[in-house]
Amino acid sequence: MVDLLGYGKSSKPQAPFMLTDQADAVAELLRHLAIPRYTLVGHSMGGQIAMHLAHRHPEQVQRLVLLAPAGIERFTAEQVGVFELMQPAAVMAADADIILQNLQSNFHQFPEEARFMARDREKIKADPQFPLYAQAVVYGVKGMVREPVWEWIPKLQQEVLIIYGEEDALIPNRFFNPGLTITELLAEAKERFPRAQTVALPAAGHFIMWEKAEEVNQRIRSFCLE
């Protein structure tokens, strides 16, 4: 697992950086670690970053595992404009209740043992670098709509495993695409990716790797050993 630019203990650049910058940073890290070929696993925004990395550095990526990935769902120009309105101040202003609500929305059934993530998120508000973290969150959201992947997905030649939770409340976006189902989204992905396996797991939300850890891990192992 890698702390992306702007997150965790990674550096927090003040200049705007998009998903392609994140992809290039991860590719450079793996080159530095002398890992020439690998299976890349990405969740949510990380899934879209993984697609960018596979597209920009195909010689490095052997397979892709995309867990509830952003990037397959599409948005109109008007919807993109709404995402563009997001500002770091909104991230910084979130209080403990909003932070917990946002975390809970990632689960079909919220497990109490996950509450620590909300507490940790609340604690980092006291960090001097918190404004830069908030800025990174905004860059990530805007990057997802500024750097879409849909048009060139057919160029990806890696084998791909895509897993969504059937009860994902974040993807598809319930506000912009209320009629789009996980089944329909996966059907579109199956047609778009040249070499994709798609899976929808019941009774699971956006954090499928938590709610369905054993099944997700087994499917990844099977996929990598084929």
UniProtKB/TrEMBL annotation:
Residues 2-218 form the AB hydrolase-1 domain. SUPFAM superfamilies: alpha/beta-Hydrolases (SSF53474). GO terms for molecular function: hydrolase activity. It comes from Nitritalea halalkaliphila LW7. Keywords: Hydrolase. It comes from the Bacteria. The keyword Iron-sulfur does not apply. One of its GO terms (cellular component) is membrane. This is Alpha/beta hydrolase fold protein.
